[in-house]
Each structure stands twice: as C-alpha cells, then as structure tokens.
Amino acid sequence: MSSDSCELLCLDLPQAEAVRARVPADDDVRLAADRARALADPTRLRIARALAVGDELCVCDLAWVCSASQNLVSHHVRQLRTAGLAASRREGKLVMYRLTDAGHTLLALLLPDPEPAVGEG
C-alpha cells in the first residue's frame, strides 16, 4: 500500500459532499487549465514578462528581448493569444502584442515582480 493513501475507507460523507458541491466540473475549469498550461513554458513566461514590462511590443522586439528567433517568439505569442493571455493589433505592417488582464493576473501569481533594490523607486 502506498504511503500516499489511506489504509482504510474513511469517507466523511457530509464533509465530502459539501466540498464536492464547491469543486467545479472539468468543463468549468478547462479555460483556467489552458491558461496555466500556456504559461507553463519558460520562453512563454519570459515573453509574458517582457509584455508586462514593455506594455506593447512587436515580435521583433520580443525576439531581441528574449534572445530567441522571431519564428519561435511568434509561435509562443500565438499560444498566449489563443489562451486569452495576450492580445494583438495591427499597426501598419507591424503586429503589436500586449498582455490581457487575465495575462497580467496569472503572470503576477506565477512570476511576481522582484522587489526593487534598496535605494530604487
């Protein structure tokens, strides 16, 4: 028997039912899971941080900031956009990306801003 499970059935039905009533179904948490998965990559986290700091950037700028190819950055920013964490707009021949409110919120939970050094800000 694994040390990670009970050795006997000890269901506290009233508590288990009360908890079960407040736990959403799989379909109800799919968007949250998709968004978490979208930021579960170091490159996408770096891109998201760059967008949070830079407010709005094109793929060329993101590629330079993240030391990655434009093709790679384009692929990752598309995944962030598909998950609803980033948005884009066309400005002439450029496509500008920014984080959505959901992107800012999730990024802040996963990768909080570092505390400013003493004497800064």
TrEMBL record:
NCBIfam families reported in the protein's UniProt record:
HTH_metalloreg (NF033788)
InterPro entries on file = ArsR-like_HTH, ArsR_HTH, HTH_ArsR_DNA-bd_dom, Metal_resp_trans_reg, WH-like_DNA-bd_sf, WH_DNA-bd_sf
Key words, A-Z: DNA-binding, Transcription, Transcription regulation
Instruction: Give the protein name, as stated in the record.
Output: Transcriptional regulator, ArsR family
Which Gene Ontology terms cover its molecular function? DNA binding; DNA-binding transcription factor activity
Keyword Signal included in the entry's annotation: no
Q: Decide whether keyword Transcription is in the record.
A: yes
What organism, scientifically named, is this protein from?
Answer: Nocardiopsis dassonvillei (strain ATCC 23218 / DSM 43111 / CIP 107115 / JCM 7437 / KCTC 9190 / NBRC 14626 / NCTC 10488 / NRRL B-5397 / IMRU 509) (Actinomadura dassonvillei)
What Gene3D superfamilies would the database entry show? Winged helix-like DNA-binding domain superfamily/Winged helix DNA-binding domain (1.10.10.10)
Give every HTH arsR-type domain span: 24-118
